[in-house]
Design brief:
- With 71 residues, this protein is mainly β.
- The chain has a single domain, classed as OB fold (Dihydrolipoamide Acetyltransferase, E2P).
- Helix content is 0%, strand content 54%.
- Strands 1-8-6-3 form a four-stranded antiparallel beta sheet, with no helix packed on it. The protein has a four-stranded antiparallel beta sheet with strand order 5-4-2-7, with no helix packed on it.
């Protein structure tokens, strides 16, 4: 089981900044989330390789929804 990148608040996905297979380091920006009319960068909680992306641009997400899985 990998590390899940979850939405910290409800909002809309503006941009996915990584692709499946990309290496990421802890604290790399992986998603740009629009919430409360502000752009909020979402950071990788751990390093690894992007295994799965569960959202796409313009998707609405809820708090704690899994957006990306990193292995």
């Amino acid at each position: 089981m990998g590390v899940e990148v979850k939405a910290p608040m409800p909002g809309k996905i503006l941009e996915i900044l990584v692709k499946v297979g990309d290496p990421v380091k802890e604290d790399d920006e992986v998603v740009m989330l629009e919430a409360m009319k502000m752009e909020n960068p979402i950071y990788a909680p751990a390093g690894g390789t992007v295994k799965e992306i569960k959202v796409k641009a313009n998707d609405s997400v809820d708090t704690e929804q899994v957006m990306i899985i990193i292995e």
